[in-house]
Known about the structure:
The structure holds 2 protein chains of 2 kinds.
Chain A: H1 3-8, H2 11-14, H3 37-40, H4 52-55, E1 59-65, E2 70-73, H5 82-97, E3 102-107, E4 110-117, E5 120-126, H6 132-150, H7 153-160, H8 174-183, H9 189-192, E6 194-196, E7 219-223, E8 233-239, E9 245-250, H10 256-272, H11 275-285, E10 300-303, E11 306-310, H12 318-335, E12 346-349, E13 354-358, E14 364-369, H13 375-396
Helix pairs in contact in A: 6-8
Chain B: H1 2-13, E1 29-35, E2 49-53, H2 59-79, E3 87-90, E4 93-101, E5 104-111, H3 122-140, H4 143-149, H5 154-169, E6 189-192, H6 212-228, E7 235-240, E8 243-247, H7 251-265, H8 267-272, E9 286-289, E10 329-331, E11 337-339, E12 355-357, E13 364-372, E14 375-382, H9 389-418, E15 431-436, E16 441-444, H10 447-450, H11 455-478, E17 486-491, E18 497-503, E19 506-512, H12 519-533
Antiparallel strand pairs in B: 1-2, 1-5, 3-4, 4-5, 6-9, 7-8, 7-14, 10-11, 12-13, 13-14, 15-16, 15-19, 17-18, 18-19
Helix pairs in contact in B: 1-2, 3-7, 6-9
Amino acid sequence: MSSESRASSSGDEASEPYPNPIPKPPRINWPPSHWPRGYQEKRHVDEDDASLSWRKRKKHFFILSNSGKPIYSRHGDEHKLAGFSATLQAIISFVENGGDHVKLVRAGKHQVVFLVKGPIYLVCISCTEEPYESLRMQLELIYGQMLLILTKSVIRCFEKNPKFDMTPLLGGTDIVFSSLIHSFSWNPATFLHAVFCLAILMCKHKVISLNHLGHLNLSLQFACLDTYPMAFLYAYVHYLDADTYLMLLTTSSDAFYHLKDCRIRIEMVLLKSSVLSEIQRSMIDGGMRVEELPLDPLPLYFGSVRVFWSSHHQISSPRQQKRLYRAYQKLYASCMTEEMGPTKPSFEEMKTTFYYVGSPQDFELYAAFDPLADKALAIKTCNRVCQWVKDVENEIFLLGASPFSW
Amino acid sequence: MPNKKLRCAEEIMGLSSASTTASATPEGLQLCIFDLRRGQNEGQELDKILFFFPADLPFSAQFSVIGLSEGLITFTRIFSPETACEAIEAERHSHVFYEAEPDIWMVMVVEKSKEFEAIWRSDALRKVLKEVHYLFVMFHGSIRALLDKDPGGGLTRSHLYYFIMDYLGAFQKRSPFDGCCWDFLVGKKLLLPSFRDCLKERGTVQMLTVGREAAIEVQSLVRVLESCAGNIPCHSLILFQDLLVSTTLSPDDTVNLFAYAVLRLTPRALSSGVSSWSYLRKGATSHVSSSSIFARPGGVPEQFQGSDVNSPAGDNNYRVIRPLQQDKWSKGKDGFLVTDIWGAEASNLISATPTVLLHRTEERMYLCAHQHKSLTLIFLIPVSSVLIGDQGVSAVKQQVLENVSLKLLRVEEKLSKGWVGENAYHVSGYRYLLVDGDRNVSRASPAGKVTTLTKDSLLALSKLREEVDLEKSRAQSDNAGQEKELEVSIRAKNNAWVIARVTRGKELYMVLEKANETLLYASDAVEKFSNRYCNGAFSLN
Lengths: 406, 541
């Protein structure tokens, strides 16, 4: 992620010096040349807000500046969307001028969700029926992603120069956003505030979306984590095999060889203890299966705050999976709110499926049943699963694990 | 389209300068009605506004509300052409939209305040807008028709102003010393439906359940009523207390007339004189300051008078009938309810007999109401069928009285005997609301029993209802024919079970505070209720 190369190509406005001190990252080719070409290109670039196809897209995401300049749009060309962006800015500013902050606009099946982060405005326009809370969280993640790429210095740039053009700085990173946005539709981590873990404990699948970037073998990355806004971090990423990688973070810019040594030692331990082969096996197995549970075969799903474990892959059709995912998302939003307090068991029956969310103590259970399943039996099954989860809690969840211990 | 887009931005941005004054807006409630077809040219924006509450809000602030609303209506149509903006949720305010008639919008802005428990369900607020509009149309005809009659808009503005102010008056919080110390009315407050009203449903009728014998009596009374008018197709509505006993009107018209009866005609409405809400409307509600509600008792604020707003005639002396005015109905010696709202005597143009417009047939009807003890009998005679106006109506009334008085006594007696009082529909252990959307009928736990619920339970139910509202509206826009089937049981913070079941156009909402054992127990409790009181409509098996 070379901010240097971006700055050089971004014209007069962007050539304004980046606030110091920013360590110069090593120059790398971005995006990597080995990526398939089609994968890098943004979709529907020929569209704008006058196109019917653009208007009919199910989910839009926009990032704009408080002066109404478009920074990112999921669909369509940002430059062509300048007028639309100005409208979004006008709505937000108008409400702000009245001493309030707009959060949500509803129109039929559409929701327009707003998130203001200082001089950066984020907007989602969606007809996916996802709850407001989920969409807002998605905007937060997109903002986090943006910061990850550009660091918080960008905010200072805006404060100095409201007309600052950020688009060139994000050039080529469309794929990062697309990939993140795509994950909102399949990765429960985005609404559970959790990380997926394999049955084997060692593989932390995702914290930062950098892991979507593909095969970045042995490269020193410059990263800034939202949780530690004042720290610039260097990430040492090493792929241990095709799917598993190790990421080491440091604040020191010249720790490359030290980290390399560490990595070699860790790798040795992992190999010796056959943890790596366990991870591989676990990846191939796809985690735990319902059949392994002491119950009738039912599609099931588990979650807990911060770490989750699921069996959703056992529903084969992606459409069904998405439907189930959305249903869980709604359940989560209904139960995890200020008014409702922490999760409480609930039961929802729609035409086709039963869902259950239980919170015996410190984990949540989401499950779907056949619509014809007997309710009493379904509840009984859930209770048994809860009991079983409690018994093996230490094995399947990363209990007590903290993402970063400094 | 690009023009439209630009317009949308302009609508919002062009007015942003005015918004700086919006912070001076009195907090609480704002309610406006505007017509998107008017005031299209620069400098004529004022012409859009047909009603604004509070009327003494500076124009810049009024424009600010209407500008934002109009901007968002245009904006949301880009993505959702069929259903434009329905609600804006901001941190401190909720804006609820309702397109009452094509291009005529009603927008209510309410301030959120934890202190005053101002936690709203936007659908409940929209139903307030719907109700006031339906009632308005019932008496005055559609807003568009009024505007067509008087393009200047003065006539419409005067009518809307008095009607809505009278309506809002009904939301006014009375002092606990009501009746004896009117002067204690310090800090006037408006009551709007809040989370505490989540076991009520506005826009529905509450029915009295009658035994077989009484039902036969009622039926025979209705038949006699119909025959009184000879060949004239008249309609009737019978109420006992604040509950509907029988109707020959369409569901829509029944709801409107029932709402009016409960507001102004039933024994409770007449006797209380001041606060005339039925048990449906009573109960704790959140407050909104309304300092200006009676700020201008003298008349319509200037901008709502014809002369000010491009009225070609410059005429501001419209005769405005105010059917919702309080304390204007009373019971005459013959048992008929009388009022001078429509004038003390018939003039050449307007009859002194109240009239209403039927929603279904768009036919204007004379409204006659007769009361015997707790029984209120409303019958409607087509205006077109009574040739000699008020005199003719009097004759029909006389005839009705002669024919039905005996039956009326018997029906009243029968119903009174079977009536066990306010808590008639209380089901021990349950707090519930049952809505039949197809028939616009609802039944709920008595208000007095609902107040025993904790705030946590009510908040949880209110939130659940908000979700069900969303699901319902989505199902509606997906496929008109397909009805939503839904069951949600949530355990609130206080361990109470909060349950919603929607099936085949019927809805059941329930709070079970003492059933904190298991989900299965709660589920069984609902099943029992459904089998016993709803003919198994909500039973799963």
